[in-house]
Design brief:
single chain; 73% helix; mainly alpha; rod-shaped; 96 residues; 0% strand
Length: 96
C-alpha cells in the first residue's frame, strides 16, 4: 500500500508536487496555530467576540497558515516533503 506522499509523487509534475507539499505545510501550520487563537479572549478582541467570530476563527487561522506556506515563511516542512516526493518518484521511475 502506498503512503499518501508516495501516492502524490507518482507521475506528477514538479509544480503539482510543490503545490501538494505547500498545501500539506499549510494544514500542519493551521493545526499548530489553532491553539494560540483558541486562547484569545473573544470578548476583548477587535471584533467584539461572539458566536460569529468563533465560527469564522478557524478560517482565519487557515488563511494565515496558507499565506505563510505560500510565501515560503512556514516551518520548512514544504521543502522536506517535496524532496521526499521527488525521491519517491525517482525510485518509481528506476523500478519500471
Amino acid at each position: 500500500m502506498l503512503s499518501p506522499v508516495a501516492g502524490a509523487a507518482t507521475a506528477q509534475s514538479p509544480a503539482r508536487m510543490r503545490e501538494v507539499a505547500q498545501r500539506f505545510e499549510a494544514q500542519v501550520l493551521a493545526q499548530l496555530l489553532q491553539p494560540a487563537f483558541d486562547s484569545v479572549a473573544g470578548e476583548k478582541s477587535a471584533f467584539g467576540g461572539g458566536a460569529a467570530e468563533a465560527q469564522w476563527r478557524p478560517m482565519l487561522v487557515e488563511a494565515f497558515a496558507a499565506g505563510a506556506a505560500r510565501s515560503g515563511n512556514g516551518i520548512g516542512l514544504q521543502e522536506m516533503v517535496l524532496g521526499q516526493m521527488i525521491r519517491l518518484q525517482e525510485q518509481g521511475e528506476r523500478s519500471r
